[in-house]
Amino acid sequence: MQAVAVQPACLGLYCGRAVLVANGSNGVYSDCGVCPRGQRTDDHKICRPCTESPDRYDWLYLGFMAMLPLVLHWFFIEWYSGKKSSSALFQHITALFECSVAAIVTLLVSDPVGSLCIRSCKVVMLSDWYTMLYNPSPDYINTIHCTHEAVYPLYTIVFIYYAFCLVLMMLLRPLLVKKIACGLGKSDRFKSIYAALYFFPILTVLQAVGGGLLYYAFPYIILVLSLVTLAVYMSASEVESFKDLLLRKKRLVVLFSHWLLHAYGIISISKLDKLEEDLPLLALVPTPALFYLMTAKYTEPSRILSEGANGH
Question: CA distances (Å), 124 to each of 129, 158, 239, in order?
């Protein structure tokens, strides 16, 4: 009788054996451990290359993470540019250019290099984002380290994108601001850039710690934040009717921007799996703004106070 060599069981949720020599069912495999970058374990604990393309929801998540620095750029540019500054528009365009170029370059340097398409591993569950928490300790003393990017490349590609955004901003924005921001004081010219030097580290930590949570929650985050910020903006701008909304083009731009965010959130939730059922949901996009405009006059603080005084 011929002895059969039995390999010990591969412990841990994300530990696997790398394929050393591929030969069908008789391949040669490494010892149980971490999978190489760009691979994850299959049901048989064998490390397999990530060959799938990101699905629609994955692209929507990457789009959300790409939008975050752009929206923050626009917010701080508007915040620090002042009402009479003519430089805000050029800075907005420059920020859009920086983020767009960074996104394209990030896709080009990702595997496969030189293509706007990327290959990825499918996200199965939340723990795929936090493999470092699932390193097994068979004897409760020694730990087998199997930490790798099971959601390749959805975790690291965001960091690469932020790095390119930061580099492009430091190369382009100071020159532009110095040339065109003549209406601002010297201390105010670069405040939007200083703000970016704060929020990029914050976004990086947010992705590092909460990437998996953001992956599942971002559609609802978009809807809630866009609704709240629209209500705050319209209240601060004292918009109480359609006439107030049409007085300034900037208000319309802000409104349509929020409508785009509403639509993005609805599409992310529905994933447009069934077009005939999901597309009608986009008709709900203008509803919050219309509801606000129709009810704003009834919730004006001065009117409530005057009616309360008359009642007494």
Answer: 10, 19, 45
DSSP string, 48-81: EE--BPP-HHHHHHHHHHHHHHHHHHHHHHHHHH
Residue 143 and residue 135 in contact, taking contact as beta carbons nearer than 8 Å: yes
Of 296, 154, 178, 151, give the one whose Cα is nearest residue 238: 296
Q: Is 194 exposed, middle or buried (0-12, 13-18, 19+ CB in 10 A)?
A: exposed
CA dist 245 to 79, 291, 296, 299, Å?
Answer: 20, 14, 13, 17
**With contact defined as beta carbons under 8 Å apart, do 289 and 230 qualify?**
yes
Instruction: Work out whether strand 39-41 and strand 19-21 pair parallel, antiparallel, or are unpaired.
Output: unpaired
Cα–Cα distance, 207 to 218 (Å, whole number): 12
pLDDT digits (tens, 9 = 90+) for 235-259: 887 777 777 777 778 888 888 999 9
